[in-house]
Amino acid sequence: MELIEKTREFVTTFLEDEPSSHDMSHINRVEALCMEIREEEGGDPLVLHLAALLHDVGVIKEHEEGGDHAEYSAEIASEFLGKAGVPKKVIGEVTYCIRTHRFSGGHSPKTIEARILQDADRLDALGAIGIFRAVLSMGALRMLKHTTGIDKGASKKTVYKKDPVAGFNEYMHYKPFTIPEKLNTDSAKRIGEERLKIMRLYLEALNRESGLERNIP
């Protein structure tokens, strides 16, 4: 447990200036979801704790330089865990989880720990917290582009749309509404379907109140 707490402290310091939705509260929720899913699906708890804590530690570098924060995170995790004396086998399992977790990466993880981390990370984009994170992230990324000129290529069609409500609609259909069918574990699928109900109700109300009517699948 000492290693886990040291890792938590390391990540907290690393992400203290994270302006969007990959902050420490996201990390803590993903870690908790990993443990919840593990109760039914199994998996190594040490690998899951470490992978969940370190999976987004490279996001600041992505904001500053572009690229893939999953790869940056895996590199940072490998260096940190190596210095902490963690066995190479465990480091390899943790970094594999991190490299394959990202939604836009299109990976199909082979290990149960990697499948659980990917599911937990995706579940945090659903439900009431998913709506909050989406709005927060869109605002932060729009401001990042305005102040630095850096944009996120995968988000161009939604984040930078002139009408942010229309952009939010497109984001919902591009990401959250497709997540349940892409989850790996049965327990995650159950959680995902429940959380998606909240998002559908919210989007219906948003479109009605904003005058932007759209059919919701």
Overview of the molecule:
The protein has 217 residues and is mainly alpha-helical. The chain has one domain: Hypothetical protein af1432 (Orthogonal Bundle), CATH 1.10.3210. The protein contains 11 helices and no strands. The protein has helices spanning 2-14, 24-41, 45-54, 59-65, 69-83, 88-99, 112-123, 127-148, 156-159, 164-174, 186-210. Helix 2 packs antiparallel against helix 3 (45-54), helix 3 (45-54) packs across helix 7 and helix 7 (112-123) runs parallel beside helix 11.
Keywords, please?
217 residues, mainly alpha, Hypothetical protein af1432, 11 helices
Blueprint (SSEs and pairs):
Layout: H1 2-14, H2 24-41, H3 45-54, H4 59-65, H5 69-83, H6 88-99, H7 112-123, H8 127-148, H9 156-159, H10 164-174, H11 186-210
